[in-house]
């Protein structure tokens, strides 16, 4: 007999968890691959490449949390990571924000395959994480 609550053993919930994990892993892989090229602009500073590495690490940690736990906090972490990355990629695509302290200007008014793939994974991942969060909330209400 499984020790997981019934809400986390249903096939739909397992598929949802795996889809959230897949979206976060795609996001992380793309950011890890792009990071070295973006760090060239600021080799001695924080740089966009290091920010990409931090975002990729956060995405991997959130994906592991969702994979292992599948709980409300796990989905909330995934929503925070994927949603914030999605907002940032859209913001820096359409708005020329100047450098702010150690954060470099990351304005890039173009779309290319890797950037598009990452943005789609972030958007879909955020939406799926929100659905998982909602399903967990609804499931906990029914158990009371």
What's a concise summary of this model?
The chain has 144 residues and is mostly helical. It has helices at residues 11-39, 47-68, 72-94, 113-143.
Task: Name its key features.
single chain, mainly alpha, 144 residues, 4 helices
Could you characterize what this model shows?
- With 144 residues, the protein is mostly helical.
- The protein has four helices and no strands.
- Helix 1 packs antiparallel against helix 2 and helix 3 (72-94) runs antiparallel to helix 4 (113-143).
- The radius of gyration is 17 Å and the shape is elongated.
- The chain starts with 10 loop residues before the first helix and ends with a helix.
Could you give a short account of the major beta sheet?
A: none
* Unreliable stretches covering 5 or more consecutive residues: none
Helices and strands: which structural class?
A: mainly alpha
| Rg for CA atoms | 17 Å
How large is the share of residues in beta strands? under 5%
- Tell me, rounded to a whole number, the average pLDDT: 89
Shape: elongated
**Tally of extended strands?**
0
| Series of secondary-structure elements, N-terminal to C-terminal | HHHH
By oligomeric state, this entry counts as single chain
**Helix percent band:** over 70%
Count of helices? Answer: 4
Distance between the termini: 22 Å
